[in-house]
Amino acid sequence: MDRNTFTDSDVISHINNNFVAIKFDAEYQNSVTFNNNLYKYVRSGRKGINELAYYLTNGNLSYPMTIFLDENYQLITLLPGYHKPNFYNLVLKYIGEDHWKSQSWDEYLKNSKK
Fold it and tell me: What is the model's pTM?
C-alpha cells in the first residue's frame, strides 16, 4: 500500500484533510503510551507483538491493517488487507465525511454509485 495506495494524490488529500494518520509497526519493541495506558512488546514465538496493536484490533491482527478511531479514540472500524486507491478513497470518504454515522457501508456504496 505504501507504493501504490498511499502515493495516490486523492488518497493523500483525503487523509490530510480528514484524518490524523499514524503509521505503527505492530511488532514495535518499545513500550508505547496511548490514551494514558502503557502498552508493551510481548515476545511470542520467533517474533512478538506490541500490546497496542492487539488492543486496537481487538485481537483481530492482520497485515496490513488500517484502524479508524473517532476523536475520542473509540474504534470506528478495522480495514484489514491491501486495498487499491479507488476503493480506499471510498472508505476514506465514508469515514472522513462522517457518512458512517448515518448509513451503513452498503447504503453508502449504493448512494455513491448514483
Answer: 0.89
